[in-house]
Design a protein that fits this description.
662 residues; Nucleotidyltransferase, domain 5; 4 domains; HATC_C_dom; zinc-finger; AC transposase; nucleus
Length: 662
């Protein structure tokens, strides 16, 4: 009462009236921004919209206009007109060009040798785009990568057309083909042909090849519930709260249909591959595995698409199994374009095994049959044998996933990991006892031995697929590249003694060759021709031992490089010794940054090859960005604007990060 007495309130009214009057006077004195301030407003808004996938129509949205007007005109007493869409587009074009100049300058200043990735993507509006990324190590051993282009590529995608586009992109960015260590592409014939026509060394994406080994064995296309029954469920039940699916992106019906088309296409390609590779017995064994996987895929599709099924599954977890609501899990559907998604789907099904058991028990009740009349006869609970099979399959697939993730990194060298990773995968596939730990708890069950037999044949089949796809790769890959990673160089367990010595000789040859490029040439000295240089690099890339051309002038270089390699191997052997108390090497780039002056010749080779990536994941990520730009509601965007928006979204933050790092 004392605080809000009428007398006190009455005395405050004149003050209130004075404040209102002053505010009214202030509103009447709104400042107009200058031309320079308006340009900065337009520039900042254009950067924010392009970097964060906002629609250009935002500047015409009444709610957004009201918000900006309130915080500027009402609160700030300054009039800030929002740019029109045409003005905003001009600002985006200007910013994209400024950013291109910055990236071009960075590449010119800090890029010596580089690798590139390329891939093709079709947008929802049926326009096709080619992505082009560059990867290199600068003079301070900082890894750099840029998405240089996501450019429309109309017409039939022949190898010649793709090569022409790549050639134009490299010319536009002033990239010397002689400095390109590798083009990383997919394994399609047109991309292989493009690499040959372009005239640069090229190889297929390791993660893509690993995915092909696994995907065909686990994808099923004919007479599946996925294609026949899922459409029926989705016709009347689809509205599910998507946020509960942490691994799955939000997919529209059109996008789900596109995923289904991709799955069918991938399955057909893999069926052809399997027919060309496997015996009839192996095909039969894989067909039985695919049938089991399909059972779990059908369950995943239903619970993913049915709001009623999803709600019941969530209720079972929270009420029957006492799982907190925030920890309740949803199903995951595998996708042919998402590597390792099949393993994620199967692992999620295993995690939800208890919940699924309760669900099928509920289906057996009268109440459950009344609630789920549409699926009672269609959904099948996997048997104990099916569950054990999937657990064994997860054990077999997990190393593939780990290797794919390892080889897809951007901030550490991946090329040195190729051979050790492939050798590790092959070793896993040759391990006859890999399923023992999983099967042991079920050893007394009647189906345990049968499951073991089937999974052993599955393992042997995957081994056959693996060796068919990677045997030549494991022979052709330069074994010496792994020596450039100080974490591996001290041991190299994947090489035999004779292979280790051969790899060391080849590394000395590569080091001497590169060191020779940095030495002055005096009269009477011998230089190799450009053709000889190309032949030398070609021999190194394909791992065949080549005798180093030497004369009385180059022999000291070779000897010096050999001594340098010996010192390097001695040092990294100590660093990688687990019994040593020193901190282990975590990032090879940091190690070389601190030791490049100690190993001047080897560091040149390291800078050249550690910037070479093993996968085309960078191009895949660029297309993920493109998918956020060209959405179902933004299909009318012009290709040139898409190009600018993706370039900004991909590179603006990297430019800021690199500038801060410097």
């Amino acid at each position: 009462m004392e605080r809000f007495h009428p007398n006190d309130l009455g005395t405050s009214r004149p003050i209130e009236r004075n404040l209102n009057a002053e505010f009214a006077d202030t509103v009447g004195n709104i400042r107009e921004i200058t031309k320079e301030e308006q340009e900065q407003v337009n520039r900042l808004l254009a950067r924010w919209i392009s970097a964060h996938f906002r629609p250009l129509l935002l500047v015409e949205d009444k709610g957004f206009i009201a918000f900006v007007t309130y915080i500027t005109k009402t609160l700030g007493c300054v009039n800030v007109p929002l740019p029109k869409r045409t003005q905003l587009r001009r600002c985006i074009i200007i910013f994209a060009n400024e950013l291109r100049e910055y990236v071009q300058g960075m590449i010119s200043e800090s890029c010596d040798y580089y690798s590139i990735t390329a891939d093709i993507w079709t947008a929802p509006n049926s326009r096709s785009y080619i992505a082009f990324t560059i990867h290199y190590v600068d003079e301070d051993f900082n890894p750099r990568n840029w998405t240089l282009e996501v450019k429309e590529i109309p017409g039939k995608h022949t190898g010649k057309l793709i090569a022409d586009y790549l050639d134009i992109i490299m010319d536009d960015w002033k990239l010397d083909k002689g400095k390109c260590t590798r083009l990383v592409r997919d394994s399609g014939r047109n991309m292989v042909s493009a690499g040959k026509i372009l005239g640069v060394e090229h190889f297929s994406c390791l993660a893509h090849d690993i995915h092909l080994v696994v995907a065909g064995a686990l994808s099923k296309d004919k007479n599946t519930i996925l294609t026949e029954e899922a459409a029926q469920w989705s016709s009347f039940e689809y509205e599910v709260e998507e946020s509960v699916y942490d691994e799955d992106a939000n997919l529209s019906m059109a996008e789900l249909e596109e995923v289904e088309k991709l799955r069918k296409r991938a399955s057909k390609e893999m069926d052809k591959y399997l027919n060309e590779t496997l015996t009839n017995l192996q095909k039969g064994e894989m067909e039985s595995i695919r049938d089991v996987v399909q059972k779990f895929r059908s369950l995943s599709v239903y619970f993913r698409k049915s709001s009623k099924g999803h709600s019941r599954l969530e209720r079972i977890q929270t009420q029957n199994l006492d799982i907190p609501v925030q920890n309740a899990l949803g199903m995951i559907i595998d996708c042919p374009t998402r590597w390792n998604s099949c393993l994620l789907m199967l692992q999620r099904c295993i995690k939800l095994e208890k919940a699924l058991n309760v669900f099928f028990e509920y289906l057996g009740t009268v109440r459950g049959q009344n609630e789920f009349t549409d699926v009672h006869s269609k959904l099948t609970m996997p048997s104990h044998k099916d569950i054990l099979t999937v657990k064994c399959l997860c054990t077999l697939l997990r190393p593939f996933t780990e290797v794919s993730k390892q080889l897809s990194g951007q901030m550490y060298p991946t090329l040195p990991l190729v051979l050790p990773s492939l050798c590790g995968l092959e070793k896993t596939l040759r391990n006859r006892w890999i399923f023992d730990k999983v099967i042991h708890p079920f050893r007394k069950e009647s189906y345990a031995n049968e499951t073991r037999v089937v999974m052993q044949r599955c393992r042997e089949t995957l081994l056959s697929l693996f060796t068919n796809r990677f045997d030549d790769r494991m022979i052709s890959e330069p074994k010496w590249v792994a020596f450039l990673d100080p974490r591996i160089a001290g041991q190299m367990p994947h090489l035999r003694d004779d292979e280790r010595q051969e790899a060391m000789d080849d590394l000395v040859a590569a080091t001497a060759e590169l060191a020779g490029d940095h030495l002055p040439v005096f009269p009477g000295e011998t230089q190799t021709s450009d053709d000889d240089d190309d032949d030398f690099i070609n021999q190194l890339l394909y791992g065949r031992k080549r005798r180093v051309r030497s004369n009385h002038n180059t022999t000291p270089i070779v000897a010096k490089c050999r001594r340098e390699l010996k010192r390097y191997l001695a040092e990294v052997a100590i660093d990688s010794d687990e019994s040593d108390e020193s901190e282990p090497i975590k990032n090879p780039f940091d190690w070389w940054k601190g030791n490049q002056h100690k190993y001047r010749n080897l560091s040149r080779v390291a800078r050249k090859w550690l910037g070479t990536v093993a996968t085309s994941v960078a191009s895949e990520r660029a297309f993920s960005t493109s998918g956020n730009v060209v959405t179902a509601k933004r299909c009318s965007l012009a290709p040139d604007l898409v190009r600018d928006l993706v370039f900004i979204a991909e590179n603006a933050r990297r430019a800021e990060h690199y500038s801060e790092a410097v």
